[in-house]
Design goal:
Length: 401
Amino acid sequence: MSALLDAIPAAPAEPTWTIVPPRRKNTTKAKPHPPGKKSNAEVAAGNLAANSGRRTQTEIEPATAEGITADPVPSEAKPKTSAGAKPRRRPRQRHRNPRGRGAGPAPAASHASPGPSQSQHNKRPRPDDTVTPTGDSKRPRRGTKQEAVSYAEALRANQLCVAVMTSPHHDLTADQATVIRKSVEQRLMEGLLCPATTVQFGRVRFRGKAHFSDGVLKLWCEDDYTLAWLRSTVDAIASPIVGATLVVRPQAEIQRRILCGLFVPDDNELEINTLRRLLAAHNPKVAVNSWSLVRAERQSDQDVPGVHLLLRVPEKDVDHLRKEERRMYWLCGNIYLKIMEDVPPPASTTNTPVKAEDPNPAQPTPMEEALPSTSAVEDYFRDDGGSDCSESCLDSSPLRE
């Protein structure tokens, strides 16, 4: 019976809508990419490898296309992007010191850039960069301000600087000036040691040091009282020069003297005093007797024997001889005064150009042949006296008896 029922066909059922579940994509195969085009994952992995230098593109496994089941891409290699949007491609940053296998040797420690914890030392400032302080000085300056001196005070100070000389003027020798100075000091000591005149002579005061220069004895009085005492004392001292008296006058009245050289031909080897008398008698327009003799040296081994004289001549006599072309009369000819101020300094011997010889040289005058050259005068004589501080000026002596 049951078999019969199974053989009877069943009545057809009414048609209805059936819900079909969505069909999932086949994830067993990867979607092929067009040739020559990289995926987004490969581009992101290449950018990370270029920036970090630790992982290259070959070390990263290629990721599958979006939507295909496969091993997940590491978070450090796969950028986070929104669904359906392409990741933004960033430009590659260029490092000063590349890393990796092709970076080469590591830079030296001295050239390496300092880290955040290292402090860079500042350079020492240059002198040009320093600024001179314009404020007050660190230490107060004392006694730098000089008070203004009136014309009357300056004139009075010049009058107190005096010199003991002879009238008419003749140069004193060093020994004569020493005798005069000792006579003044002797009279001052006697007055100071006497009880009756101690107070009076105690007001006599001098400045500096009495010294011999330019043929006179120079002193500096403290005040007018000392100057008056000096004048009265000098008037009572006998003059060491016959026919002259001692006077006290300002140093401004001392005649300026110029150093000169003179060669006197002499075959008879006359004395210096005899030469002086002959020059004074043959040249009356200049005061030869007032000239100071600094040094004399006789020349006997040359063609023309004679005497080299180094003199200090007053300025007015030098001016007169310049007008006469430095010519002086001597026996049967002329001799010429050599003024040291007019002599140019010797030229340097280095790189001296050689001059061609003149085929027709000029013939010198007979008396000029006896004149020594500039170098010969400087070799024989040197300016050893005349300054206030020079000790060698004590050797000067006047040309007189």
